[in-house]
Predict the structure.
Amino acid sequence: MKKTAFLPFLVLVTVPVHATAQDFDEVQIRVEQVSESIYMLVGSGGNIAVSVGEDGTFIVDDQYAPLTEKIVTAIAGFTDDPVDFVINTHWHVDHTDGNENFGGAGAVIVSHANSRRRMETDQLIELFEVRQEAYSREGLPKITFDESVRFHLNGETIDVFYLGRAHTDGDAIVYFRDSNVVHTGDVFVRYGLPFIDQPNGGSINGIISVVNQVAELTDEDTVFIPGHGQLSSRGDLLEFHDMLVNIRDRVQTLIQEGRSFEEIAAVNPAEGYPATFVSSEAFLRLVYDSLMEGNR
């Protein structure tokens, strides 16, 4: 797979490490209760949502494969039922590496159709130079959707839906309507400037659009489980949206003035926003490439 031009500009403070490079023995799974029947699990990788009740156990994302036993042990702290359903918010390894373990144990995996297509073949996450191998039959989603799928479990109406290309080309939003809890996957994160997987279908305009749509579907009482970071409010989501809009608009203006990427990076339209995960320059390259792709 051909690498894009932005790789030379990559500077990171912290880098998501591929499963084989981490010491998972040191990882602890922290459990936080979100509502009467919904919990958030934090370990290494994307945040996991867990819904429990008389209909079984439903989880959103499953982190890295070496953590599956710890995740199962954590879930056993509040339910005796095994995991019945796994929703993948997207295909990136830090959210799906446990698929083969949970799928092999009998859980039904669900994702957007584009995410399954990605998981069927080897993929490259270019920004971090991580190669993700195709999943086995056990690890592939058994149910896919193009627009939405609805579950009726544990006294919850759970809507899983796609609102367009955003972080990737297959992002799923999971809305626990009765508890008023939303898991956003990496469409919304709390580590500052986000990673947008532009070479694999992500888009700055897309992520802004999806965040805006999610804000319109929710209210001031909604609790958000972001892809990474702490439990959040709708106000946090709107601040994230405004950050993306401000940077996008600044970059677009400079492009219209005929500035090169190097000139735009020197101006640093992301100045003032936290770059604790993806550097300002790397993020600006993703925004620039995304906008230039849309202008072609």
Observations:
- The mean pLDDT is 92.
- Residues 100 and 139 are 4 Å apart (CA to CA).
- The chain is about 30% helix and 20% strand.
- The first helix runs from residue 68 to 75.
